[in-house]
Amino acid sequence: MTDPLLIKTVIHAWHGVTLDDADAAGAVLALDRSLEALKAAGAGELGFDHDKGLFQAQLVKAGATP
Amino acid sequence: MSNVEPWKLSLRDAADAIRAGTLKSEALAEACLDRIARTEDLNCVVAVDRGQALSAARAADAAVAAGRELGPLHGVPLGHKDMFYRAGRASDCGTTIRRGFVPDHTSAALERLDWAGALDIARLHMSEFAMGPSGHNAHLGRCRNPWNPDYITGGSSSGSGAAVAARLVFGALGSDTGGSVRLPAAMCGVVGLKPTQGRISRYGIMPLSESLDCVGPLARTVRDVARLMDVLAGYDPRDTGTVAAPVSDYEAGLDRAGGQRLDGVRIGVPTSFYFDGIDAEVANRVEEAMRVLEGLGAVLSDVPLPDHDQIAELANVTFTPEAAMLHLPWLRERPDDYGPQVRARLLQGLVIPATAYLQAKSLRGVLLKSMLEGPFAQCDALVTPMLGTPAPTGAETDVAAGEGMAAVVGKLAHMTRPVSYLGLPALSMPAGFTSNGLPTAIQLIGKPFAEATLLGIGDAYEQATHWTEHAPPL
After folding, report:
1. Which of B13, B240, B280, B307 has its CA 20 to 30 A from that of B471?
2. In B, which residues are within 8 Å of A47 by CB distance?
3. Is the dihedral of CA B237, B239, B243, B248 positive or negative?
């Protein structure tokens, strides 16, 4: 689990925003859940040559074929 | 028209009656304004200017009398979520921080509705900064559900759902970043469409998430929504997120189809995520809806989906950093002017690493591709519940309910958030009532830019069930 104290320190240093203990704990829970989902969805395997414009390209393609 | 109280008409019938000269816009506006005045307890209208509304209505009537060319919404009273900017008019965005903010430009969506002749008679309640699926607002108080004020409306386009359901206006704009058009439509018993990402310009609306924000209409019937979409849809160079895709003539398409049969339409029923653990009563309503669709000739089949639990979470990874970036100066300088839950959600965005955010954005294309090559290779649309439980009460979703509140509120957007991440269009259709007397709904999810397909299915379903003819007893 990410350390909430570390998060409080970093966010205050980076952005000047103060997180209280409850905010920090909530944010860390959300962060860890997010990182887990990214890992499970294969984010680590996207690779160097992945098509980062794929979402928009597919919308454009779908929109061009009524 | 003399035998029908004008506020009971559909948007389409009202517009056609004005055009035909059988109904005066002024009479319609007066009826709506009177209903707004009588239903203040719903707390769904933030501001209304009676004098301005009636003046605009009289001008609309004069245009009819003069035989001028009329737009498809000529003289019809609408109201909108209080985040659609109009030059010179305040947009409070459901907040203390933006209270009294007067934009110097008008949103593309309002420009288009103006062009079509619609009247803009009210600014409507919304969750603070469009963040919150319940309709609670720490600054404005809770928007009440017209079916029973003890219950929530859903959010964040809370006022749009309530005002349309209560017959205060004939249609409304909402915004949908994770379900904010569809949820109030479902809980208030009206039709709500989240279009494909890029279908409607977001120029001049309060921004929340560059990747996920969508503008969508709420109205009483599918054909009303189709008419609004005919006006709203299209490319706009001022919003680089719009896609220059051809726009269907949505209403004419429904007229051509006749709305009677769905022979050969393939509708997928997801085998995971959407039906997992839903309330039995809701499941029954959805099952009944699926039988109706089958009875109309649609072919329903089970379809597996990519892991939607992950997709729902990836929506958060995309949304929260984008929202936090926009709010950073106020998070620093005015943290106490946010409601606690909105502030806490925004703060989550500050701790997401840039790499994680970019991974979530990249996976969006990968997962959309897997949807198009998987379930949408087998079917034209998906049908799902809109809500996993009957609509909850205000008390159950209030901060005073403690940890129980978080559990209830956390589930509200379960059905909607993945669709937002995938950028797909989705239609919330009334599907009857649960035993608490509140509406429930089905969600029809389509391929990108397949709004016409969704409206066609919704129209046939509506004509078979007549659920949209039910109105709250106000």
Report:
1. B280
2. none
3. negative
Which of B243, B332, B362 has its CB closest to that of A16? B332
* Residue B301 bridge partners (DSSP): B268
Phi, psi of B366 (to 5 degrees): -60, -45
Give how many domains chain B has, as a whole number. 1
Chain A CB contacts of B328 below 8 Å: 15, 17
Residues of A in contact with B307 (CB under 8 A): 40-41
Interface pTM, i.e. ipTM: 0.94
Contact B344 A16 (CB under 8 A): no
Domain count across chain A? 1
pLDDT tens, N- to C-terminus, chain B (474 residues): 456 789 999 999 999 999 999 999 999 999 999 999 999 999 999 999 999 999 999 999 999 999 999 999 999 999 999 999 999 999 999 999 999 999 999 999 999 999 999 999 999 999 999 999 999 999 999 999 999 999 999 999 999 999 999 999 999 999 999 999 999 999 999 999 999 999 999 999 999 999 999 999 999 999 999 999 999 999 999 999 999 999 989 999 998 887 679 999 999 999 999 999 999 999 999 999 999 999 999 999 999 999 999 999 999 999 999 999 999 999 999 999 999 999 999 999 999 999 999 999 999 999 999 999 999 999 999 999 999 999 999 999 998 888 788 889 989 999 999 999 999 999 999 999 999 999 999 999 999 999 999 999 999 999 999 999 999 998
| Residue B190 belongs to some domain of the structure | yes
Which structural domain, as residue segments, surrounds residue A16? 4-64
Under an 8 A CB cutoff, do B311 and A33 touch? no
Test the B interface: residue of A54, A55, A60 with most B CBs within 10 Å: A55
Q: Are B75 and B60 in contact (CB under 8 A)?
A: yes
Give domain status of residue B428, yes or no.
Answer: yes
Cα of B348 to nearest chain A Cα, Å:
4
pTM: 0.97
Q: What is the DSSP string of B54-115?
A: HHHHHHHHHHHHTT----TTTT-EEEEETTB-BTTB---TTSSTTTT---SS--HHHHHHHH
- Interchain contact, B362 vs A62, CB within 8 Å: no
Chain B residues with beta carbon closer than 8 angstroms to that of A45: none
Question: Which CATH number is B308's domain given?
Answer: 3.90.1300.10
How many Å lie between the alpha carbon of A6 and the closest alpha carbon of chain B? 10
Residues of B marked active site are found at 81, 156, 180
